[in-house]
Structure to design on (730 residues):
């Protein structure tokens, strides 16, 4: 798709906004999967972990879709 | 969600009155702001919704705090802009530091006036951020902000005082009665030395603290409100005094052997009956009878002291009863003690301040890096949320409720602001379009369950609609603003989640350390306000400890026991000092040396080795007391001295094996 703006009814939307939402969704999925597997109990600071995970996923999404 | 449905579709009369009051005040403020041609009429409207509270004293107090904070904030904004106008990065850095400082100060203050510091912090951001691009406009912004806030406060106060006024001071009487009942009950349990005493103690302490929190608001409700505010201070002292003596009597009871206890049991029963909720007993008469019984020649030693302690307790209960009556009648007793003192925690305040500065700093970097104009809105909102809810224990939850309110406000504001408003004209139609959603918002504000979300809904609805004399409709601007709001609050919630002080053991250690410092100070604090100073702080801290350490079944020496033991030690020390002060001839050097030694010992780490360290000075003081002519005060002082010594030994035993003490 590339890093191009999205036109929504004449309003241009930043692609990062869409990537951010997508990453949020993916992070939720990954987090649920971790919970299922049982790896979640090894997390020390949950909020910090979630935040870091989100940044990683967002970076991955941008790297994958933004080229 | 029955609570949610009742709040909106079957509200109580009080809630509807509140909503109407708020709406009328808002309409008045908006009309004035538009009529006077002020730059941002939405600020006046928002202020009305922010200071809107059910009781009129609260509105005045919050309004004044807001005004004070706004004035300081505007001045600081102009000063900062004058100093750092040419260097936006430096300006943002200073702003972050200022915000952190104000958040820390408001956390430390622990009173309703803390709100002034919150305002002083984020007002600088509100005025300064739009002025970064054009530093010369800062003065206009400052004047506009200040005048519109004042206008909003004026309108809200006016309406809340004129329409269905509900006064804090009336509520205060009911709350004080409840505290008095709880105090009697807790005193009963304490005398019996029962296991439920902890719950009773916590309940009455919670009530004393709650009544004291209302005191500041009642002060703004005319002469009688002020009298009642003073009476509350007296009542807190008497209740704390009563609890202290009841617990002291129970300690003395433990020293009696079985036959002595049997002999004194009838007296104890009489006093317990007098403390019963329904009983109406002449307490002063009872105190006199107890004192007479103590003076009988057959009574010796511990028995006599026990009866004297009961007599003193009965006297204090009578005094507390008078204070409650004085409060109900709205008369301020003369020579009132100073207000309750609070536990202050520098470390938490510093961490919370840093958290605000950090959240602001991160968003500022985001703003500068992206150059997205709407990001300043996110910056602003993060500053507001971070400083407003910093000191709350449930800050992350409140933040999420705030986000919920925004989620509702976005679509509603889109329909009202972008679809309906362009089709109408005139002030009446504007009020109609804005008023309907705001009415429901105000209804939600009246119920505690939906309060935070509803307040957030109202504020963001107003911001997103931005009523002005010449309206501008711009969907792109709306979307940008909406996005910025979500990012700002999200960032603040993230900061709440990431930086928190949830380590209970650390918190407990801090509290106990502070208790120790106060015990040391108690050896030389002037006696006049000592009851409210020590009692208030201890009540606050024991409540904190109870929250961090819920009763663990079968738990051994817990932090809570530690706190309770410190309370015992402090109580007996206070009692000892009161008895010594009541004696006619001062004891001079023996007393001074005892107090100095105790202060030194309490400050240093405790351990089994120190258990006997107090014996020498205590023996000297005992000798001095025995040589002086005998009196009731001397006898009570001797008993209190023995209790202080015993308390100290228990304290040393409890801290055995902690190389660094509790610090």
């Amino acid at each position: 798709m590339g890093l191009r703006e999205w036109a929504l009814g004449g309003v241009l939307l930043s692609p990062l906004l869409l990537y951010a939402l997508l990453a949020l969704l993916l992070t939720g999925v990954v987090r649920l999967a971790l919970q299922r597997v049982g790896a979640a109990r090894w997390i020390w600071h949950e909020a910090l972990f979630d935040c870091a995970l989100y940044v990683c996923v967002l970076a991955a999404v941008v790297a994958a879709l933004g080229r | 969600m029955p609570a949610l449905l009742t709040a909106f579709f079957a509200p109580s009369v009080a809630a509807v009155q509140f909503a109407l009051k708020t709406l009328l005040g808002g309409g008045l403020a908006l009309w004035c702001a538009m009529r006077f041609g002020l730059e941002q009429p939405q600020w006046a409207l928002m202020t009305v919704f922010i200071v809107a509270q059910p009781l009129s004293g609260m509105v005045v107090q919050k309004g004044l705090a807001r005004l004070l904070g706004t004035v300081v904030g505007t001045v600081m904004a102009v000063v900062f802009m004058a100093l750092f106008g040419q260097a936006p990065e430096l300006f943002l850095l200073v702003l972050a530091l200022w915000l952190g400082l104000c958040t820390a100060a408001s956390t430390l203050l622990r009173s309703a006036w803390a709100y002034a510091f919150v305002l002083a912090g984020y007002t600088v951001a509100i005025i300064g951020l739009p002025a970064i691009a054009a530093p010369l406009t800062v003065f206009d912004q400052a004047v506009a902000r200040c005048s519109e806030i004042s206008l909003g406060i004026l309108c809200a106060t006016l309406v809340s005082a004129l329409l269905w006024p509900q006064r804090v001071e009336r509520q205060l009487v009911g709350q004080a009665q409840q505290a008095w009942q709880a105090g009697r009950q807790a005193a009963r349990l304490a005398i019996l030395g029962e296991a439920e005493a902890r719950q009773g103690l916590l309940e009455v302490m919670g009530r004393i603290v709650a009544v004291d929190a209302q005191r500041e608001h009642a002060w703004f409700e005319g002469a009688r409100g002020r009298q009642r505010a003073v009476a509350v201070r007296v009542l807190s002292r008497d209740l704390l005094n009563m609890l202290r003596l009841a617990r002291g009597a129970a300690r003395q009871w433990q020293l009696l052997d079985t036959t002595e206890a049997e002999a004194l049991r009838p007296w104890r029963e009489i006093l317990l009956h007098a403390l019963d909720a329904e009983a109406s007993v002449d307490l002063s008469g009872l105190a006199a009878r107890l004192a007479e019984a103590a003076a009988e020649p057959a009574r010796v030693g511990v028995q006599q002291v026990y009866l004297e302690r009961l007599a003193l307790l009965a006297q204090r209960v009578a005094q507390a009863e008078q204070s409650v009556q004085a409060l109900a009648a709205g008369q301020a007793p003369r020579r009132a003690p100073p207000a309750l003192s609070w536990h202050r925690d520098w470390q938490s305040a510093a961490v919370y301040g840093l958290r605000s500065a950090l959240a602001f700093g991160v968003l500022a970097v985001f703003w500068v890096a992206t150059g997205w104009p709407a990001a300043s809105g996110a910056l602003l909102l993060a500053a507001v949320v971070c400083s407003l809810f910093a000191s709350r224990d449930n800050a992350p939850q409140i933040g999420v409720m705030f986000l919920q309110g925004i989620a509702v406000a976005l679509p509603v504001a889109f329909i009202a602001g972008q679809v309906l408003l362009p089709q109408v004209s005139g002030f009446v139609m504007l009020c109609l379009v804005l008023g309907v959603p705001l009415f429901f918002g105000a209804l939600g504000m009246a119920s505690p369950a939906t309060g935070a979300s509803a307040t957030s809904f109202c504020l963001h609805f107003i911001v997103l609609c931005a009523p002005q004399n010449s309206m501008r409709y711009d969907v792109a601007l709306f979307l940008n603003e909406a996005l910025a709001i979500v990012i700002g609050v999200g960032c603040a919630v993230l900061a709440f989640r990431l930086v928190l002080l949830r380590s209970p053991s650390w918190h407990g250690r801090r509290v106990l350390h502070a208790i120790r410092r106060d015990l040391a100070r108690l050896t030389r604090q002037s006696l006049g306000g000592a009851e409210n100073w020590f009692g208030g702080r201890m009540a606050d801290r024991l409540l904190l400890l109870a929250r961090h350490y819920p009763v663990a079944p079968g738990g051994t020496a817990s932090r809570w026991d530690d706190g309770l033991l410190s309370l015992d030690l402090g109580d007996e020390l206070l009692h000892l000092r009161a008895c010594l002060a009541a004696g006619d001839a001062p004891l001079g050097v023996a007393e001074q040396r005892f107090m100095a030694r105790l202060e030194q010992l309490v400050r240093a780490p405790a351990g089994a080795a120190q258990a006997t360290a107090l014996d020498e000075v205590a023996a000297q003081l005992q000798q001095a007391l025995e040589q002086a002519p005998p009196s009731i005060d001397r006898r009570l002082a001797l008993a209190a001295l023995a209790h202080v010594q015993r308390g100290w030994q228990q304290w040393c035993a409890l801290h055995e094996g902690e190389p660094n003490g509790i610090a």
Remarks:
- The longest helix of chain B spans residues 222-253.
- Chain B touches chain A through seven residues (CB under 8 Å).
- Residues 553-557, 659-663 of chain B have pLDDT under 50 and may be disordered.
